């Protein structure tokens, strides 16, 4: 039996997964980027006039505008909420200090501080751990998987969005070493998935609009726009957002789609910028887009110096790349493994989060930093520790030489490094961008100071930040553009690119990127961009699953129900044959809808007036098709026949058995397929290639390796 | 017989083409983006170790670096040559004025001026018209076609590059209303095509390196990098360059490739910047990347004003969009038609170019503008007319309010408008970017002055420039990014995007973009991004060419020679059948090499030691395979048999006959195919879909229209 991708019938808690990076889980479904061009679909498309298509195109633009607007609004809300909550916290602590310091009770204030932080973090951890574990972390690995074509359960639900937004507000206000930028990408994606469908399954509300877009192909397009809008809102980098979506979604390039993604990104940046300017009482001042802003770097000769005096740069960078990045990723890897094994109960997770909370460096926003200093004095340690991470990054970039004590800075870097490493993976919703930037900036500035060759150590800080971030997340093109857009200076492009490239090459030698580590630990069948270089040895015959369960074009209902109910195989796609040659492909979801509406040949004959099944019925059931167990089929009905002709995809893509793996891979990836039928020279079905058959092969240290498949 | 794409055996002079936009020429070959995975190829790939693939990857990076470097260098040479030639011209004229003005001979100076201009233009026109007509124009339409997958004859040859560079220097120095930016894109592409092949067919020099890259797939990847490097050098916009390549090359997105393209772009900008800074005696000052620089726009409240006071903007923009752009494109369309019919002889072409030359506004570079004014006086007309276009654009953007007299400005705009329109399409190598920007900027500033609502009319100028350029070339995403990068301010992104979008929507209503007009007039089978919306009615059965000439796996040499020699069909791809089911696909070029090396079954038996044909033999013949007529096959040899098994692609992509046109289109476009075999349910060949079968259908005013096919 062919172990096609399992439906997510067992909503696996993380603990059930045998976490091992040599395994590939079968519990993840693939998204279907290839339209099932069955008769119903073709009839609908043929009925539609040219004007109809124009209207669809316009709705797509409207939806993208809405996605951008809502994503920008959410970013704005998060920003304002964090600022106000932190404000309340500071106010309480300050009151307390003023009240107690005279009687020598500074320790009371410190305890109060820790208690407040823990309280915030607890709230954040509780909602994530108990209500929606899918909202943990930055959400970027999940969105990467979704754009790659893997359906991660519950990742684009409304509940996830709500928990994510509240969670990130709590964890940032609670002073964890986290950023609010990563979760924006996830939020944007959820907004897109919701808006584009014109209904909310969670709220049981159907607006009866955008029904045409209720399928994987369209939804995925919008989700990529949402992710881009999220990046754009977070970093004020609309082009970076587009490139992020392309880098992750990749291969399904479409000019109109890209243009819409860009539109969503632009609207999102603009919305955030506009509302924040109103909030800050400077309406119309759009000069600081994004949640984070690096401040303006003036282009000067120093950039050239960076390139002409490579020695110190190389030392500084290679230290960061060689030591800090792999250490960060490896530490986090062990920590994640530990968590998966021992910290899988929600209460334990909440407790761990609360354990980290009081350790965190804290944020002050607009509140004075001289908490424990005499008036006018300045504590550089306090600046580094008690500022918001965003501000600290900016200070490290732009403060004049001599602002920082090297000892303080190194202490800060080390502490923050371990804190950030511990924090990423906690059961709170939080991003890793800002902590990485901060560590890198501190490290870079430290080197700038120690080497003392450069007038402006802030530039070292920028390069260090790029190296650290690039080494941890291993994004390349999009990250360069994001950083260039955030610095607002194109001249920095080349050095940033070279730094990111070095960081990636060096980092890849030791360990994978942080997101890839987390994706691997979840055993997700992630498809990389190309087949492994040395896989020309393999052909479709070796990689395909065989034998395949096929249906006849007119099939007995009992057979269909039995096949669908067979939990040991749990296939999702079934070739249709007549009599032996392939004539179509039908999906489990389609069969479920057919069974639910009892589209049987005998019934159609007896009740001639019966309403014909329409595409609408499939769309209404999308995306949560009921399991086969919930559909009752009587013993009489089991003897009926079902005619699949109208509903199957009559022209599935096929390949001969001799096709090499890279060729199969290219076809699969370029068209976003879910099932690829392998046929012999007479067009008889001999096998079926699915995502997991391709994701199984990867390049290890000793050439091509094959991963094991696991049912969970 | 199936009219597959004709080989370019008749190197058609432009006059031979029945220029009609309802025709599709069959004289253009397709590029093959799909590797022919025959046994030779697979054997080579399987022999290659992991290290071998790494080396290949490194060579790709080295080549991209080289492409960037050389493109930057060429841009630098063009810039310096233009400056010096113009300098000599001004010096001569100035000498003359000083000598003759006293005796009242100003007219003599004017004549001298005109003669000098004409001389420059004549040289430029002569080399283009007589030596390499392919170097005419900006070259962007040709590169668009190449990236789209159409092989335009002679477009990436060394000779074209040399003529292009000299031509653009002459035409810019000769004071035509042209820019030197467009030709840079073409130049970059030629550099890429040359460098990546490791040899020059024109110079008969083979460096014996990069032999692996001698096929369409790889070459096209490098050409896209070259085009991006060209954009990057021209506008100092590396990200814009990448997006240009993606927008045009599209659908073959590959992350590593994109990253390499970005690398080439960065290197190119940096090289240009670096060498120009040395030339300008400010080594290391990298603040002005690109051949054109818009000057820094500070972000201020005005951007918000633009968005909050849409009325004047809308008036200004809609005027530009509604009146100027379509008029420009339509006028140029008529002019081009006229030229194709009546000005097709090289001497006539040169004469036309010389006719325009003395009319042109001129350039002064660093020479004083007060030619005819008293010391200290300032002639705004002279500024507009006698400045370099690049400088004029910058002045229009940045000069303080009140610098321009509205009457002068409107006169200038009108004159320049018609001049630019006349100039584009002359037989000189020249770009349309800068003239469009200039017209738009002047127009926008004029409106800014007349409406007088805005403190800074320079912003109107920027928006006008965007609208004009966008309306003429209809690029969207990449143009936004290019303009944002050139202004160096992300805040302008949203308004520029909205303006470009409006210009495109309005413009598309009237007439196509300038480049598309020129592509259509050449009857190029250009594939757009998606199949026409209402084409679900059509299936592969209707669009395919049938019947198809097939070969047996072991075929008689005589049959092959006869088929290849048949000039009335001139097919390029032949399915191989055994006995009736398809078992492979072989290309004309492969058969030619086989015939040339006499790979016959009988000979192989008799001479067992004969060297086996290798991939190298195919690569050596690439890309100029000899015509069949040049291969002598004796009467005895005609009776021999040829075994195609090893050389054919054993796994060509196939589709069933019922596949809808959009589905065929998607497969074709996503994989960059050249031939797609249509089979019946028993895998028998029933038809062949090629580029022209898909390009034939387009959406007209009255729904789906079909173009005629023409043999020339």
Automatic annotation (TrEMBL), chains A, B:
<keyword id="KW-0868">Chloride</keyword>
<keyword id="KW-0677">Repeat</keyword>
<feature type="transmembrane region" description="Helical">
    <location>
        <begin position="58"/>
        <end position="82"/>
    </location>
</feature>
<dbReference type="InterPro" id="IPR014743">
    <property type="entry name" value="Cl-channel_core"/>
</dbReference>
<keyword id="KW-0406">Ion transport</keyword>
<dbReference type="Pfam" id="PF00571">
    <property type="entry name" value="CBS"/>
</dbReference>
<dbReference type="InterPro" id="IPR002249">
    <property type="entry name" value="CIC-7"/>
</dbReference>
<feature type="transmembrane region" description="Helical">
    <location>
        <begin position="490"/>
        <end position="511"/>
    </location>
</feature>
<keyword id="KW-1133">Transmembrane helix</keyword>
<feature type="transmembrane region" description="Helical">
    <location>
        <begin position="222"/>
        <end position="245"/>
    </location>
</feature>
<dbReference type="InterPro" id="IPR000644">
    <property type="entry name" value="CBS_dom"/>
</dbReference>
<dbReference type="GO" id="GO:0062158">
    <property type="term" value="F:chloride:proton antiporter activity"/>
</dbReference>
<keyword id="KW-0813">Transport</keyword>
<dbReference type="GO" id="GO:0005254">
    <property type="term" value="F:chloride channel activity"/>
</dbReference>
<comment type="similarity">
    <text>Belongs to the chloride channel (TC 2.A.49) family.</text>
</comment>
<feature type="transmembrane region" description="Helical">
    <location>
        <begin position="315"/>
        <end position="335"/>
    </location>
</feature>
<dbReference type="InterPro" id="IPR046342">
    <property type="entry name" value="CBS_dom_sf"/>
</dbReference>
<keyword id="KW-0129">CBS domain</keyword>
<keyword id="KW-0472">Membrane</keyword>
<feature type="transmembrane region" description="Helical">
    <location>
        <begin position="432"/>
        <end position="453"/>
    </location>
</feature>
<dbReference type="InterPro" id="IPR051280">
    <property type="entry name" value="Cl-channel/antiporter"/>
</dbReference>
<dbReference type="GO" id="GO:0005765">
    <property type="term" value="C:lysosomal membrane"/>
</dbReference>
<feature type="transmembrane region" description="Helical">
    <location>
        <begin position="404"/>
        <end position="426"/>
    </location>
</feature>
<dbReference type="InterPro" id="IPR001807">
    <property type="entry name" value="ClC"/>
</dbReference>
<feature type="transmembrane region" description="Helical">
    <location>
        <begin position="103"/>
        <end position="131"/>
    </location>
</feature>
<feature type="transmembrane region" description="Helical">
    <location>
        <begin position="257"/>
        <end position="279"/>
    </location>
</feature>
<dbReference type="Pfam" id="PF00654">
    <property type="entry name" value="Voltage_CLC"/>
</dbReference>
<protein>
    <recommendedName>
        <fullName>Chloride channel protein</fullName>
    </recommendedName>
</protein>
<feature type="domain" description="CBS">
    <location>
        <begin position="648"/>
        <end position="706"/>
    </location>
</feature>
<keyword id="KW-0812">Transmembrane</keyword>
